Amino acid sequence: MAAKAAPEAPETTVDAFHRGRFFLVQPKGRGHRAGVDAMLLASLVPGDTTGKLADFGAGSGAAGMAVASRNDAMDVVLIERSPQMVQLARKSVLLPQNAGFAGRVTVLSADVTLTGRERLAAGLEDVSFDHVIMNPPFNDVNDRATPDALKAQAHAMTDQLFERWIRTASAVCRPSGQLSLIARPQSLLEILHACRNRFGGLQAIPVHPRPDEDAIRILLTGIKGSRARLTFRPPLFVHEAGKQAFSSKVDDLNNGRATISRNSNSLDRLRL
Question: pTM of the full predicted structure?
């Protein structure tokens, strides 16, 4: 039997993030390229967070490496199923510009939708992470299709996607560990259903392009085992009214100068 051919490596670029704090190897002209979504996701991990973090669907490693580059006491595992993106994530970690934190970042080739023994065999062990972040493919399959197969794999939502991803997040997360994700507002009900009896104390932040425009993203955090109620926090505006530049707050989040801490007014009570 002929050996299975290795996936074709895409043409790449090396791009700076957080004003040169870390760099990524990314596909050029096709595939998913990291941007504001990944940086907003990373901002949900406060700068004083410690422990071990899993980045589900990491791509070339943008969100996870953003956390590792500013959180000196965190170990980060970039988890990705696409062989091409796994290659790029490993190249990203090995860039000389990332040497200062590369020893705390590993890349795991695995499908986060696996269950039972298959999940364990893939390296996704039970209660092994303090924090799970995820930027799942959240475009509806009925949206305009792209001929770019690599991009389609990163963007197109599959049936029960959030149920499967959040189920695995709950399995690998330690008690009182935090889940953080970014998604479209249209997915909120599915996300809430998936978090039920897994993650509580949910805090949602709607993200609007401008103050007079509808939200296009939602940032959400939750605590494993919490019994606190859902909270909607003040909205985040990417741009100020009538302007193209980022708002000062989003610019700080996008460049790693600020993070979003959970509202301590909500009591994260654990199940007895």
Answer: 0.87
